[in-house]
Amino acid sequence: MTKSINDQLPAEMDLWRTNELHELGINDRRISLLVRSGALVRLRRGCYIRGSTWKAQKPWIRSLQLVAAHAHGTLTTSAGNSVYSHTSAARLHGLFLWNVDDKVHITTETTTSSTSHGGDVVPHTRPLALKGGMAFIQGMPCTTLEQTVVDCCRMLNYKQALVLMDHALRKGADAAKLQQMCASLAGCNGVLTLRRALENADARSESPGETLTRELLQRLRIDLPEPQVEVTSAEGRHRLDFAWKKRKVALEFDGRVKYFDYAPTDEVVYQERLREKALSELGWTFIRIKWQHLFREQEFKTSVLRVLRGTS
């Protein structure tokens, strides 16, 4: 039975509202069967996604899919007077988010009943800017890139805000506009985190791991290395995550996402070994950092300083 029901799901679609499934001849009992079998996954009340599609998605794609599910699920009930904001807008803009929940954030001009949104939705209220004050991404209305950065930094902790700020600047956020917006919010909740993230941001950071590595080095009062340093060896030109060039010490963040989403694991590891061997022959020393090292601060500081003192 489940197979015959699954065959009723059109191949060209992956996301359905309950009424759309009803129109396909799939009643509530059959919907429940599909969910139990894994053929469908319930994303929120009244909205479902094909199970195989959901299973294949990476975590950050799933988070974005939950925003899309909200938009799809409320298409026929929303009055169209809201925009996606805060971390939901950040996901639509493709910004890095670190250790952030999957709540859907929307901003409206008028306060709505606390029961008018599902438990997965966080509503915010403020006047919505008119022309030029919002963006449309994948057909969904959201706050502009700069407004999104400001909103997020005011609700996140400093490390989370710095990760997002680094990436926003790398993607072209207007730093001068962010400074103006920050100045206009003097005394408001969260503005200190916003200001601090803006002051310490570096658009050269290419991943959350690199941002958090830089934040840790700075907090532990270790002389900051230069990010994204290009060097040449017999194997060609290479770019190091961080380097103390005069000491010929490289610090590399070995987050799995950095490499293994873009090339086969064995080939990437092989190329990394060739690069490191070639640079080592030129007198370079490597410090390799993994995620777990960022949370063993004493061990991290000791190992980094041991290498730096040995090359001074």
Give the SSE string.
HEHHEEHHEHEEEEHHHHHEEEHHEH
Are there runs of 5+ residues with pLDDT below 50, and where?
A: none
Query: Which outline best applies?
Result: globular
- As a whole number of angstroms, the C-alpha radius of gyration is 24 Å
Largest sheet: 4 strands, mixed
What share of residues are in beta strands?
15-25%
Spatial order of strands in the largest sheet: 9-10-11-12
Q: Please identify the structural class as seen in this structure.
A: alpha+beta
CA(first)-CA(last) distance? 72 Å
Number of helices: 14
Number of strands: 12
Question: What is the average of the pLDDT values?
Answer: 87
Task: Outline the fold blueprint.
Blueprint: H1 2-6, E1 15-17, H2 18-23, H3 28-37, E2 40-44, E3 47-50, H4 51-56, H5 59-73, E4 82-84, H6 86-92, E5 104-108, E6 121-125, E7 134-137, E8 140-143, H7 145-155, H8 158-170, H9 175-184, H10 191-200, H11 208-219, E9 226-233, E10 236-244, E11 249-253, H12 256-260, H13 265-280, E12 285-289, H14 297-310
Parallel strand pairs: 5-6, 11-12
Antiparallel strand pairs: 1-3, 2-3, 4-5, 7-8, 9-10, 10-11
